[in-house]
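User: I'm writing a tutorial on reading structure tokens. Could you give me a worked example: one chain, its sequence, then its tokens, then a sentence or two explaining what the tokens reveal?
Assistant: Sure. Here is the example chain.
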Amino acid sequence: MSLARRGRSIAVLGFLLAGAVGIISSTQTWLTVERADAGEAILVPGASALPLLAPLSLAVLALGLAMSIVGPVLRLVFGVLGAASAVFLGWTTLQLFLSDPLAAVGPTVTETTGLAGSAAIADVVVGMERSAWPPIALIGWVVLLAASLVVLVTWRRWKTGGRRFRTDAPHAAETAGPVDAIDSWDDLSRGTDPTR
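And here are its predicted structure tokens:
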């Protein structure tokens, strides 16, 4: 398998894997909220923690499917879009670890308890436990970013792949075009003296 085809296969698989991880993650519990009133715990799915998770994951999945049939220029565009999606999703997912995730659970708490406003929600929430899905999603975004870089690095090879001149092609001499005598003599005499 040529480098162009191998690169395309890696990129397509990376996009499909990352898109599937995102779609599955959007339906799984990312945060479990413990309530101050000792009521039933509130489960916050990925789609609530990151509202753009599901749409962007579907878009990445579609880009991966389309990448196997479109031309090199569109593959380049898809690579840029995939990289942008990976950076955005990765950074917003990372915010759950770097900052207080209270804002991420707010909509779900409001929907469950009817309480609105950061102060009211803070009074209800006494503890939060993260699930294993945010790290899994982060791995998916890393895969997506790597696949996007493969697209950006190898797209020119995809563009020129399969168009190399083959000297063993039948009738190659007939289709090669006229020969420049001066250029041919220069090529022949490079490094040697043809008169000896």
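What the tokens reveal: The beta strands are 29-35, 42-45, 125-130. The CA atoms of residues 18 and 140 lie 5 Å apart.
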